[in-house]
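can u pls check wat happens w/ zinc ion
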Amino acid sequence: MAFLPLIKLLDINMKQKIKPCYCEEDIPESIKIGYRDYKLEKWKQTVASANEAQGQFFAKEGVIGYTADETGVSHANTLIHEMLHAIIYQWNMELDEKVEELVVNGLANGLTTIFVDNPKLMGYLKNKILEG
Ligand SMILES: [Zn+2]
């Protein structure tokens, strides 16, 4: 790399730091999917263990539930999983229940794996989306 005066290097650093990027660290109250906002509801352990699911999509109620104890990649995977159920519902894909679960599981696990294996990808996609 060619020599650059310090001020130029600082300028480059500043430009890199002000790249558009929303870095929300808290879970949003709701997620807009298609025409509707879906409320994100944290489940207590007792509710979660009753149906042995880490998450659930309630189409009519407009709710996506998730367990309080799940964290990290598993939690992200659960949210992606339930969002895919919502997409199938919102875009009237009308899949057989068993087929829907297979499709949602495969896509959620596949997407999660891609994001885990390519940690810079999500930031890149986020910036491209913010560019409009
Ligand atoms: Zn499912």
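The chain has one domain: 32-131.
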